[in-house]
Specification:
The chain has about 160 residues and is mainly alpha-helical. It is built from 5 helices and 3 strands, in the order H-E-H-E-H-H-H-E. It has a 3-stranded parallel β-sheet with strand order 1-2-3, sandwiched between helices. The longest helix has 29 residues. The relative contact order is 0.17.
């Protein structure tokens, strides 16, 4: 069944427009310092199908927004990227709840869909974000970094 328009609107609001508002608030300060870093947290489901339609739409829009902003803000030495995590396990999160509700089903999912044989950790995503925010990534802008242990199947 196709999600309602309000479900799509909600997904776009909390993923795209919330990030856009944060960018609008931060960019004047970044311009004032002569440099900046913006990193959107998207999802592998913004790069390929897999999640609910509204979520896929919003995460693809986030990746597109990051790419567009990277070109728009480059002249101000503001680098913009996105990170596309795969399935990340943390206490109280969606995968934790699903694993508690169906441990055998989730174990089968990990075996069939997770080449490294495990979920990712928040710290693994954070390490990539920290790199993108660092001076070491001074030529990286407009990129979408997949952090999924080989889970996704997208070639781009």
């Amino acid at each position: 069944m196709v999600a309602s328009e309000s479900d799509f609107s909600h997904a776009v609001e909390i993923n795209v427009f919330a990030g856009l508002r944060a960018v609008r608030a931060a960019v004047p300060y970044m311009r004032g310092t002569g440099r900046g870093r913006i990193v959107f947290i998207a999802s592998v489901y913004g790069r390929e199908s897999g999640g609910r339609a509204g979520y896929n739409l919003a995460k693809a829009a986030e990746i597109s927004l990051a790419k567009s902003l990277s070109r728009e803000l480059a002249g101000d030495s503001i680098l913009v990227n996105s990170v596309a995590p795969g399935s990340i396990l943390f206490p109280g999160g969606n995968w934790d709840r699903r694993r508690q509700a169906d441990p055998e089903g989730i174990a089968a999912f990990v075996k069939s869909d997770m080449p490294l044989g495990r979920f990712g950790k928040p710290e693994e995503v954070a390490a990539v974000v920290a790199f993108l925010a660092s001076d070491q990534a001074s030529l990286v802008s407009g990129a979408c970094w997949t952090v999924d242990g080989g889970q996704s199947r997208s070639l781009v």
